[in-house]
Design goal:
- This is Carbon-nitrogen hydrolase family protein.
- Belongs to the carbon-nitrogen hydrolase superfamily. NIT1/NIT2 family.
- With 272 residues, the chain is α/β, with parallel strands linked by helices.
- It has a single domain, classed as Carbon-nitrogen hydrolase (Nitrilase/N-carbamoyl-D-aminoacid amidohydrolase).
- Helices cover 27% and strands 28% of the residues.
- It has six helices and 16 strands.
- Strand 14 and strand 15 form a beta hairpin.
- Helix 1 runs parallel beside helix 3.
- The longest helix has 19 residues, at 184-202.
Length: 272
């Protein structure tokens, strides 16, 4: 069984969890209505809170997090594989976790992944980001088994670190993911190029749901959720507005791409 229908949910998250949860749930239902068996949402699906103190105060631990419970129930109700790009989760430390969840069709959590690479940058558009001050970095790559093949899990800024995706591909992943909240400035410059590169260089499908629009305190995200084939073709692009995209995935195309250009077999150790 190598065929399935995948969907990306694109939204503009509010700074309050309960508001975004309503929006996300409605779009997940729309994706299911379009036949999606695997549905992915963006990074920070239910909360885009720019204020550090407010974010940490609102970051509930997993066992008390209303969105974890709600998405588990929704995955079970719809009978889908639901990949929540990330939620802001409280920890015992002074920093929160930026944690992705994969729910199976029974509502069980099949995989978790915490964002490894922290977005600590000064953007030329005047915005400054210091994720490491708010979030603890993850330490383990995310991998999960879907009925159709292995899934590699990453989040947003991880996209700029190709060795993570290469390691996942060499560990058997045929589907790579990068749910994100890319800034409008960096997205316009690099989003499509980076995602297509990750697909081409690894001979994998890439699925990346994205935040879009204007959030609290004027932060803008780029949108353009993408589903990309192993040869680099864009199968679906969500544009700049909230909505859903779907694409039919045939994992036989992974073997085809890797046969034509078997670069994944040609990695070599070298010194500098």
């Amino acid at each position: 069984m190598s065929h399935f229908r995948a969907a990306c949910v694109q939204l503009t998250a509010d700074r309050e969890d309960e508001v975004s949860l309503v929006q996300a749930s409605a779009l997940i239902r729309e994706a299911h209505a379009q036949g999606a068996e695997y549905v992915q949402t963006p990074e920070c699906t239910t909360m885009m809170e720019p204020d550090k103190k407010r974010l940490l105060a609102k970051a509930l631990p997993e066992e008390k997090h209303p969105s974890v419970k709600a998405f588990s129930a929704l995955a079970k109700e719809l009978g889908i594989w639901l990949h929540i790009g990330s939620l802001i989760v409280g920890t015992e430390e002074k920093r929160a976790a930026n944690r992705a969840y994969l729910f199976d069709p029974t509502g069980a959590i099949k995989a978790r992944y915490e964002k490894i690479h922290m977005f600590d940058v000064d953007i030329p558009d005047g915005q400054t980001y210091r994720e490491s001050a708010t979030f603890r970095p993850g330490e383990k790559a995310g991998m999960a088994d879907l009925p159709w093949g292995k899934l590699g899990m990453a989040i947003c800024y991880d996209l700029r670190f190709p060795y993570l995706f290469r390691a996942q591909a060499k560990a058997g992943a045929s589907i790579l993911t990068a749910p994100a909240a890319f800034t409008k400035f960096t997205g316009a410059a690099h989003w499509h190029t980076l995602l297509k590169a990750r697909a081409i260089e690894n001979g994998c499908f890439v699925i990346a749901a994205a935040q879009c629009g204007v959030h609290a305190e004027g932060r803008e995200t780029y949108g353009h959720s993408l589903i990309i084939a192993p040869w680099g073709e864009v199968l679906a692009d969500a544009g700049s507005a909230p909505g859903v995209i779907v694409a039919d995935i045939d994992l036989a195309r992974v073997a085809q791409a890797r046969t034509m250009v078997p670069s994944i077999e040609h990695d070599r150790e070298f010194s500098i």
